Amino acid sequence: MEKGQTKTLPGINQRKRQWYEASSLFLGRVCLKLGFTPNVLTVVSLLCAVVAGLQFWTGNIMWGVLWMIITAFTDMLDGSTARAGDLGTVFGGIFDHVLDRYGEFCILAGITLSGSAHPGWGIFALFGMLIASYTRAAAESMGKIENCAVGMVGRAEKFLLIIIGAVLEIYFPTGIWPKAGWLEFALIIVGVTSLITAIQRLAYAKKVLGNRKSV
By CB distance 3.0 to 4.6 Å, which of 14, 66, 91, 200 could disulfide with 151? Predict the structure, then answer.
């Protein structure tokens, strides 16, 4: 999450983000009292993602799920800590954005290397997540759009899809169809919804920017 920035989002997304930012400030204040900075929490989130990927790789799916949840929680804390202490910086946002991508790679690589999903679907999901993120980053940096976090799914929803797939993989190991488990199915959904999200973000950027000339 970009540090300390309250951004304008269309419709329900704006209300949801405002509620989220207000409700998470308490946790940010707690982190400040404990001596944590936003960038430290960003690094902690990445380390948790690495552990999650390793757990998936070694077949410890439930531990992988647990560390994914911790990853998402610490990722939330970095933004709330920045807002609570007015510590948001442009570099902090870039740092968070880049390390999030490393974390996603570690988790998806761990799932793919575990044999729970065909490598092709793992690559497909990873590409979808990266292209959705890049589309937003390009719209915000090149197009100077205040926030382009629109679309079908965000990072949290993608994590939730993977977590649900992982839990189903534990309790219903036969999978949704022959030779394909729930985790693989989850990666397919993540890839498809991420690509749709990228298209939606392009459409939103086009709507906002119109025919504005490049500098």
Answer: 200
CATH at residue 101: 1.20.120.1760
Cα–Cα separations (whole angstroms), residue 150 to 75, 136, 180: 19, 8, 31
Of 88, 81, 89, nearest to 26 by C-alpha is 81
As a whole number, mean pLDDT of residues 109-117 equals: 92
Q: Is the pLDDT of residue 16 over 90?
A: no
pTM score, whole prediction = 0.85
Could you give the angle at the alpha carbon of 110 between the alpha carbons of 177 and 118, nearest 5°?
Answer: 30
Q: State the total domains in the chain.
A: 1
Mean pLDDT of all residues in 158-178: 85
| Positive or negative: CA dihedral 85, 50, 191, 142 | positive
